[in-house]
Design brief:
single chain, mainly alpha, 12 helices, elongated
Length: 382
């Protein structure tokens, strides 16, 4: 009897494990999502606290000190200018204040002519955004803050208009921007070296991760598919964009924020390094494309080359995970890896024309893919 029951017992245990696994997978997903959300909140907690402080201070000055009855533009300008990120705060403050002032000005001019009807609101927004686009060149043309805030301010003036409040609201906007400038740039400016190094670490991490994945796939006799290669390029360029914004913020901080003036030379030196990092990232993308290109006639990659790719990924991982500034040991070992790769590449005697031809073939293949008609969507999506 016991022998006949044993298979049933094993089946019940197996079924219970499957049920537990089915329950644990959603639970793990919820835990991961909660952990990620909490990490985002913690990472932005200090910038958010500064935004709240700027909004509070702006309201106190405009409402309690100057006696403005409804100074809503003051806390709005203070909070939105600083927002949840320390990146490009000086630019956002200028764009925010200028956009609010433009919106107030256009709305105050058009309201007596058009009234407060629905059509007047739409026409005012149209004119305001057109003027903002025309005036938003260079510094003010970067991003959507300037035209968006101009339009929002015009809407508020038209919908909440009271006679004689245009100048008062303009003052409120300047007060909000001034409080944001005082708190976010004067008292608590972001550390420019930390911004740069965090952005550098993010780029180096993705380069190491994707290059290591390529090495592992090639070592197993496989090649990453085209979708993976495309997403890799997108992710690397996304992080390069974040690095560019960090570089811009660091350059402005050491010139505008008095507390960061003494770091100007160090930041300028670090900026030279980040410029080379941009070239490094694009070189890694080219390397990934060259060894993952879907060409049936292409010979299997040289095992020695695959090994070098894996070693290079490890060197990038050292840099990404090491404490900054990098120690002499890290710098020496990483430079040794790079010079060894150069030496072995030179020993192969590869013709530059062949390399250029390979890159040109990749360009031509990409162009053909761009010109090709899109694939038919699945029946479920039609």
């Amino acid at each position: 009897m016991a022998g006949r029951l044993r298979p049933r017992g094993r089946a019940e245990v197996r079924a219970r494990r499957l049920r537990d696994h089915a329950v644990s997978r959603p639970a793990e997903a919820v835990v991961r999502a909660s952990s990620s959300a909490w990490r985002r909140v913690l990472d932005a907690l200090w910038p958010v606290a500064q935004s709240a402080l700027a909004a509070t201070l702006a309201w106190l000055i405009a409402h309690d000190v100057l006696g403005h009855p409804q100074p809503f533009f003051a806390p709005i300008a203070g909070a939105i200018s600083l927002s949840t990120s320390p990146i490009q705060r000086s630019r956002r403050i200028a764009q925010m204040v200028a956009g609010v002032l433009l919106g107030i000005g256009v709305a105050e001019l058009m309201q007596p002519l058009l009234g407060e009807s629905t059509a007047a609101l739409g026409l005012t927004v149209l004119v305001t955004m057109a003027v903002a686009l025309a005036a938003g060149a260079s510094f003010f043309g970067d991003g959507m803050m300037f035209p968006n805030q101009a339009a929002a301010s015009a809407v508020l003036v038209i919908t909440l208009h009271r006679h004689g409040t245009g100048a008062e609201r303009a003052v409120d906007a300047v007060i909000g921007g001034g409080c944001a400038l005082l708190i976010g740039v004067g008292l608590f400016p972001a550390d420019p070296l930390t911004l740069l190094r965090d952005a550098e670490r993010s780029v180096l991490s993705i380069l190491a991760e994707r290059l290591g994945h390529v090495g592992a796939e090639l070592s197993s006799g496989r090649r990453p598919d085209a979708g993976w290669t495309l997403s890799t390029g997108h992710e690397i360029h996304r992080r390069l964009g974040a690095l560019t914004r960090a570089r811009s913020t660091a350059r402005i901080n050491v010139r505008v924020a008095p507390r960061r003036w003494r770091r100007r030379r160090a930041v300028d030196a670090e900026n030279l390094r980040t410029a080379q990092l941009d070239l490094l990232a694009n070189a890694v993308i080219s390397l990934i494309r060259s060894v993952t290109r879907p060409d049936e006639a292409q010979a299997p990659p040289d095992p020695a080359l695959v090994s070098e790719i894996t070693v290079m990924a490890g060197a990038l991982r050292w840099l990404a995970e090491a404490e900054r500034p990098w120690s002499e040991t890290i710098l020496r070992e990483t430079e040794t890896v790079a010079r060894d790769a150069l030496t072995r590449a030179g020993a192969r005697g590869i013709d530059r024309a062949e390399v250029s031809a390979a890159i040109l073939r990749a360009v031509a293949g990409d162009l053909i893919a761009v010109l090709a008609p899109p694939p038919e969507p699945p029946m479920s999506e039609q």
